[in-house]
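Hey,

The postdoc asked me to send both predictions to you directly instead of through the lab channel. I've kept everything plain text so nothing gets mangled by the mail client. Protein one:
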Amino acid sequence: MMIPKLHYISQGNTPKEHLENIQKACTSGAELVQLHLKNVSEKKLLKFAKEARAITAHFQTRLIVNDAYKIAKEVKADGLHVGKTDVCPTIARNHLYTWQMIGGTANTLQDCKTLIDKEVDYISLSPFRLATEENSIVELGLNGYTAITEALNTATPIIGFGGITTNDVAAILQMGVSGIAVSEAITNNFNNIKIFNELLGASSTEEQRYTFE
């Protein structure tokens, strides 16, 4: 299963804004978006997930639902993303369709090993950079990424996440990371999707460009 190299994690002050931003991301060429809605009822989440599925299906963009595995199954999302305190990937796997992918969040080498044992399809390694000082979480940065990817030596794709900008991509890719997940830098400017895709060499849908020597 090929995991796209660029993931847009939805943002917005309201569920409606999340959907509008998902639409903008799809229009701008995102190959994968994650519906990241927190603190809404299951009924509302299902409604918005169905709308997100309709938008992404129109653009042939993959949709990942955060945390809610029953909803991910019901709307036939392309997959599920689980945080460290969410449902165990093994339990979620038993409920999902076999073709649905599962990604998990990791902050440490041990988190990564646990997720690999649980056979996730990709690992979101975060935070690359912290927006605010949080005592409980260590900012990994390039050194942290290198240490973890070298120790793991895994075929499971590692996706970098946390305050990543277009300026970080080249260095991050050298650290053995396969792709990146971005919220802020894309929500602030959807044109950045094109730049991220070019930097990642990501877009498989892009026309082949002929280069004349």
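Protein two:
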Amino acid sequence: MDDPRPPAPEDDLKRRAGYRAVEEFVRSGMAVGLGTGSTASWAIRRVGELLREGVLEDVVCVPTSERTAEAARALGIPLATLAEARPRVTIDGADEISPDLSAIKGRGGALLREKIVAFASESFVLVADETKPVERLGEGVVPVEVEPFGWQATLRALSALGCEASLRRAEGSDDPFVTDGGHYTVDCLFPPIEDPAALEREIKHVPGALECGLFVGMAEAAVVARSSGEVEIMERRGS
């Protein structure tokens, strides 16, 4: 699994964020939620390394996607379901992070399971490189996981909320992208989002919209690696 080549600069930032989050928040005996995506993959790798070295013991992990589960198994990380264990902490990446640690997640295609695991956890920690913090959410799309039945009507209703909505397609295909749960994803580009919590409620009020990529008031901390060499731990006020 180890690659002898040095990581690209952006990958090195992700590596440092993922490694620091595990070292800061994961302890022996914990159940840990493992996120999905390029930055979370480094956290997965670090958990595997520390288990192999004996620094961590008796850790079980709850994956947020089949992709994450496969990566964890390859590293010898014991897995559990939410029926078997409640994560003490979930570590996951983010597409955008606002100053109050609200986030947009799910552009990697696993937002429903990511939100289920994060909500079930005692604490939730974001990991990111320095490009992810923003002054206001909405620089890119808000993914919405939708029921395939009647998705066209769901897309129209989402568009009526004031966004440009498009069905996500599988890479290199005209077929819809299908999540692990068998759902579709609609990518919604809004103007800069003034009130993420209110928008989240509006989206979830649309029949067929199962969950959206706005994670509001969920993260207690964000671990952000910067090109200066600093790895900053941002904490939500009052957490």
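Summary for protein two, as requested: Residues 9-25 form the longest helix (17 residues).

Thanks,
C.
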